[in-house]
Amino acid sequence: MTTHHKHSMTCYEGIAFLLLSVSLIVYSLVNHAEAQVEWKQSPYLFPLLIAVFLLPLSLSVIKQGAKQCPQESGKFQGKPTLVMVAATALYIASMGLLGFLVSTALFLLFIIRYLGEKRWVVTISIAILFPVVLYLLFAMLLHVMLP
Amino acid sequence: MVDVLGILSFAFDFRFVLLVFVGSVAGLFVGAIPGLSVSMATALLVSITYSWQTTDALATIMGVYVVGVFSGALSAILINIPGAPSSVVTTLDGFPLAKRGQSYQALSYAIMYSFIGTLFGFIALLLVAKPISSLALRFTPMDYFLLALFGLTTVGSLTSKQFSKGLISAALGLLFSMIGIDSVMGTARMTFGIRNLQAGINIVPALVGLFGFSEVLMSLSVSLEDGEVAKMSKTPIRLKELLRHAPLSLWYATIGVFVGALPGAGGPVAAFLAYSQAKRVVKHPSVPFGEGAVEGIVASETANNACIGGAMIPMLTLAIPGDAVTAIILSVFYVHGLRPGPMFIQTNSDMFQAILAGGFVGSFFLLLLGYLAAPRISKVLTIPKRVLLPLVTVLCVIGSFAANNRSFDVLLMFLFGILGFFMRRRSYSVAPMTLAIVLGGMMDSNFRRAVSLASSEDNKLLALFGRPITMILLLLLLITLATNSNLFNRRRKSK
């Protein structure tokens, strides 16, 4: 990530919050008008208050972004993070189809291996034992429903 | 007056003590495992203990409650994931201390001061239940609103590098808390036609995502090396050194009891208020606050455990639960045909004694299990990141599902995890957002109630802010905002 990119990111954040604030004000006013109740009873009174509160804060972030001194950004490993996000999304989606035990075992098998565990015995043992132990503990012993 | 002999008769009953112990062991694991909450465990216990004697059910639940609130600190210190919202503050100093190889020291302080806080809370419940609840009764809706707002601004100022970023995080949290059926009018708000959002954003998946899954992603994004995981060196700490903060902890415990007695506030607010007090009172901490100061752990852990006794006060005397767990305990009473209220202590003194005995016995199990089990639980740190992070992810999925048995909550956890990751990468603390999601509903209803009440008065401003308690809270809020403003900071720096 370059310094210039970081500098402009704060400004973009501020602009995003500003847009959110304005959208929320419009949303609250429009929905309040449709609800046809007094402001003191309106469900949109508090969201409007939050939006108004957010407005100067977003301006403050934009100001900070404009003034921000160039800084080096920290280390960032994008690929493992993205793979974890994608694998978790697939894991969550697959639970409905494969059930908790199978999907958890497959998720663990893939991700532990991807993150660098070289020993197959360790990977397979964890991938099988961990979901089974969780299943016995939660579903059988504590009667907690599992996904 | 409470019969002390009655409390002792429970405390020396083997069956009662055994059930408290079973609850304590369960609480230790439930609190320590990220994503599993004490409220979830107590909710499950209600169904399990349905057919039990009331005192047996209370013994088990008190064990889970007391030790579960404490053990949230274990994961907060050891892996920077608070087991419960009450332990959020403990991460601020607990984890930095653990990262420096002093996790045993951090745990020792957490155990000792959780014990002191719990004892203080239950002694307060024993002695001052009525006076405190009568003071809480005087709070108007505007007072509740201002108290919550004060809590949020304090959190914003404490946890973010920039005050405005802390407040933005809180504002976003308040927005999330608005999603769902409006409590006053009963209409869907900010659901955008999504049916699953009508029930609102549940705090459990939000908490698990913001602290659990985002931590997994943060950890992966920085490095896969295991060097960052804190190692445990069992350096003994002398009791005299450990108890050095005991006198000041009584002040934090008082804050905990008072905040606990206010319905809706609970452990997170108590811990944050005590922490902000510690920053003001302790001029020379062991290391600066936020970098591993034991004074921060002392403040947070004393206050959140003292909150347990405090939360029981309005629950028993007014039938108003102080937090989620006391709301569930209230349901235990109803299930067993008991009706808490102003006359409850007089008419059901044995139940009151059972609660007190359960609390006192549970606090001793906290001390015992804390010192015996904590060093073993810390072995989780020796698990390599490549194994630990996927296991934590699976626990996050289970934890977010188990609270309501909804697959949608798992999706929410995932989305909050990604949001939390981006926020943390950009220096927005997730703690104010968490607290805002918890307090948002209460703030909304109290604010609207206050505005409605004031609208019929001639002088609306006086009606809203004219009472002494309101004025004090408003003054505290304004001081917090002013002392964190850029103008104030610039002037202070120029001096």
Automatic annotation (TrEMBL), chain A:
InterPro entries named in the record: DUF1468
Residue stretches making up the DUF1468 domain: 14-147
TM segment ranges: 12-30, 42-62, 82-115, 121-146
Presence of the UniProt keyword Ligase in the record: no
Keywords: Membrane, Transmembrane, Transmembrane helix
Name of one Pfam family that matches: TctB
Top-level lineage group: Bacteria
Protein name: Tripartite tricarboxylate transporter TctB family protein
UniProtKB/TrEMBL annotation, chain B:
Transmembrane spans: 16-46, 58-81, 106-129, 141-160, 166-188, 200-224, 250-275, 315-335, 355-374, 386-402, 468-488
Record's keyword terms, sorted: Membrane, Transmembrane, Transmembrane helix
Domain DUF112: 18-434
Domain of life: Bacteria
Pfam families reported for this sequence: TctA
InterPro entries: DUF112_TM
Name this polypeptide is given: Tripartite tricarboxylate transporter permease
Organism: Sphaerochaeta associata
